[in-house]
Design goal:
Elements (H helix, E strand, L loop, with lengths): L6 H12 L3 H14 L7 H26 L15 E6 L6 H9 L13 E7 L2 E7 L14 H10 L2 E7 L4 H14 L2 E2 L7 E5 L5 E4 L8 H10 L5 E5 L5 H8 L4 E2 L1 E7 L7 H10 L4 E3 L8 H12 L1 E5 L1 E2 L2 E2 L4 E4 L4 H8 L2 H4 L1 E7 L7 E4 L9 E7 L2
Parallel strand pairs: 1-3, 1-4, 4-10, 5-9, 7-8, 10-11, 12-18
Antiparallel strand pairs: 2-3, 6-8, 12-15, 13-14, 16-17, 16-18
């Protein structure tokens, strides 16, 4: 601490050091920052003080969330790893843990209700997917489930949701309950993110562009926005949308997630007549599985690739294909692959060779902006 600071600033700093609560520390640090003279000699000091202030405010926000019951249980703070994070979600007794064991080759005991998440890896065709077996949600009211909001938070953050439907239970009831939970949690799984940009403003009124892409006129759209208590904003619409798309865009709590229906225990019951109900209710992939008979992991793997729009890019070492592929989004280029391998490959890049076994020209030389296909074999040549 510099000794040439004004006495008021030094006093505020002492208050900060002696403060007992987070709120007191924040008030003292804000006072200190306001009293420190702003010049070259105090830049580093102010930067550190502001960083500390930000951390304290985040800590306070977290404490308030926990007091409200919306904080996340530590066991549910699971960082994303591997090529994608996938959650298994369903009602009690739907075979979630058996499916988890089947996909990840784990041996978690089944028959008891899952209390905390199980984490494993599903290896499929060169990819590694992080699989999280979530505790079940008991009803449409997530607050009636222990750690219900933590379960929802994990689904809102993951890349894809596997929704389990038990073939031996009432399928209609399961479908209605699961869809209600997702809808109430503002998790949209059955339609793409709409071509809409929405931003709240502090002034300027309601500005709307692209109203011709809707079934509403400008007056009606402004009325919809005002019913949400919004008086100043920009709403830009770039393609055909309906009312639900507009409401989803206006609700900042809405998230859009990819999902797959996994029908479990098909070995125990003939459910062909029920598939009609599922296919009419869901516009997403439906996979029939049996963990007991080992049925369906390949279809789940393919559906994950398709739903997340992923491709595999292979490399060779000593003339042999690597066991693990580079997993990229469809439409990725040589540049994207090179950056994922190592940033130096971009700086020293000379050219790349692509092997494409199913192409008429099986081997060709390309540059950084060349678009890759699934199962391409990539060689990158760099400057010495």
């Amino acid at each position: 601490m510099p000794t040439n600071l004004p006495a008021e600033a030094q006093l505020a700093w002492q208050k900060y050091l002696e403060a007992k609560t987070t709120e007191e520390k924040i008030r003292a640090l804000e006072e200190f920052i306001s009293l420190v003279p702003k010049h070259k000699g105090t830049e580093k000091l102010l930067m550190q003080a502001k960083k500390s202030l930000t951390k304290l405010k985040l800590q306070l926000m977290k404490k308030k969330e926990l007091r409200k019951g919306t904080g996340i249980h530590p066991a549910f703070s699971i960082p994303k790893e591997e090529d994608a994070q996938i959650t298994i979600f369903g009602l009690p007794g739907t075979g979630k843990t058996a499916l988890f064991n089947y996909l990840t080759r784990n041996n978690v005991p089944i028959g008891k209700t899952t209390i905390l998440p199980n984490i494993g890896i599903f290896k499929y065709k060169g990819a590694s997917f992080q699989i999280i077996d979530l505790p079940p949600i008991f009803s449409e009211n997530i607050d009636s489930t222990p750690n219900g909001r933590s379960i929802i938070a994990l689904m809102r953050n993951c890349d894809l949701i596997l929704i389990t439907i038990d073939a031996t239970q009432d399928i209609k009831w399961q479908v209605e309950t699961v869809t209600s939970i997702l809808k109430n949690s503002r998790i949209i799984y059955d339609r793409p993110k709409p071509p809409i940009r929405f931003e709240k403003l502090s002034r300027g009124g309601i500005q709307i562009y692209g109203a011709n892409f809707t079934n509403f006129n400008l007056t009606e759209l402004k009325g919809i926005i005002r019913t949400l208590g919004i008086q100043n904003c920009i709403l830009e619409i770039y393609g055909q949308v309906d009312e639900e798309d507009i409401l989803n865009a206006l609700d900042k709590s809405t998230v859009f997630k990819k999902a797959i229906i996994v029908v479990t225990k098909i070995d125990a019951m003939q459910i062909d007549y029920e598939l009609d109900t599922l296919s009419k209710k869901f516009s997403i992939p439906i996979i029939l599985t049996s963990a007991l008979k080992g049925i369906g992991d390949d279809k789940i793997g393919d559906a994950i690739f398709s739903s997340l729009n992923l491709i595999r890019i292979w490399t060779k070492k000593d003339g042999k294909l690597s066991d693990r592929a580079l997993i990229l989004k469809r439409g990725s280029t040589v540049r994207d692959a090179a950056e994922k391998i190592h940033s130096d490959f971009i700086k020293k890049f000379r050219y790349a060779i692509i092997e494409r076994p199913k192409s008429k020209v099986r081997r060709f030389r390309v540059g950084l902006d060349f678009e890759l296909n699934d199962n391409d074999v990539l060689y990158i040549y760099t400057k010495e």
